[in-house]
Amino acid sequence: MELDYKSLVLLLWYSFLAIVKVIFIAAFGGFFTRSHLLSSGAKKDLSNLVFYLFTPCLLFASVSTTADAESLLRWWPLVVFPMIWQAIAFAAGHLLVMALLPALAPASSLPLLSSSPASVPHLQRSKREEVVKCLVSSLVFWNAGNLPLSLIISITRDIEPFASDPTATSRGVAYTSITMTYLSLMCWSVAYNYLRPSSPSPLRLPIGADDTTDDGDAGPLAYGQHKKLDDDNDDGRRSAAEKATSGDKKAVAASALPWQRLAKELFTPVTIALAIALVVGLVGPLRSVFHEPGAPLKFVSDLTSTLGACAVPIILLVLGASLSNGPQALRISRWAVVGIVGVKLLLMPVIGIAMVWTASRWGLLPDDPLFLLCLVIQASSPSATALVVITEQLGSGSGMMASLQFWQYLVAMCSVTVFIALSLYLFV
């Protein structure tokens, strides 16, 4: 399909709007933080609400309505292709880290968080691990929320030949929802446990404390001193009793049996909500009880939809709060940013388009251009904004993650548009 001038302008405009919505909501988070209306402690509380309440509700509301056996079997590429892309991104992330560390990460650049020389090797290892996990996860986990969905809805409503197809929008939302379900599951289960610090550190402040090194993330690929986000003496500070309680909880967690730790890591509120949603979606009678008009448990579906709608805006507020001093506050190496942006927004979309084009030529994909377009949009999307909430909730790496996402979303305003236009030319 050759895009006419009007369609190209619309495509550029909708891609711009989709990214600007993300940036504007995040900007409110930064403004409230700098105005001392959103404290460091409140930011962590919001992260906990997202993890324990809003995201489980969002996933239950979306998965239980879209996950049925027929769709999962017929639309298997919407899960398998992102799975392959994640494996490629994981390998590319480690290769990128291996290439960057020798040149950009002298041991002297690591921050000394303690005056004890004996603690330096441990800190070097822990900070190196934290930075590697942040960089790799920012490549592996795609945006699974508002960005792909808003792009699909806008394109199917206003750009031909989809605008003249009355079923295009509903099909596009259904396709995107399947991929969103898989990516959300991976983000809130695999990414959550991957980003979790490997072992409790006696030098690490409790998660609820006002830890100025938490968002600094000055590790092997970062340098300089991180400015404190808030000058208010009371902002984000916890009492000594709260710190002791947090330390006791960590000690109990560290002394738990291996199977108990594994069960705690696997059975999070998000994975439990996903399991329940899959059961409701795949079992016809249960699906009717929750989602049919006038059904006895329809109010549960309405309630979870209402609460779930709060998840994405709050995630973006936390993202903006983590960037309240701007991306340069963390002084992340420009080569790390260039590498992440290049792999995520240039290399992976090219690989995605090549795979979709090849599979389409071999007859492995449905004969629906919108199906192919949904795959390309997902491959072209930046990192999941939920990663910032996860790192904030874990108390490890939120500053670096937020800064990496800032640059990704700026570049995505152009890159996503280019790859969507290319996919329309190839597949429509």
Automatic annotation (TrEMBL):
Q: Which Pfam families match?
A: Mem_trans
Q: Where is this region: Disordered?
A: 216-246
Where are its TM segments located? Answer: 12-33, 45-63, 83-113, 134-153, 173-195, 266-286, 306-323, 335-358, 406-427
The membrane topology noted for this protein in its Swiss-Prot or TrEMBL record is: Multi-pass membrane protein
Q: Does the keyword Transmembrane helix apply?
A: yes
Which GO terms of the cellular component aspect does the record hold?
membrane
UniProt entry keywords in alphabetical sequence: Membrane, Transmembrane, Transmembrane helix
Any idea what this protein is called?
Transporter, auxin efflux carrier family protein
The source organism is Acanthamoeba castellanii (strain ATCC 30010 / Neff)
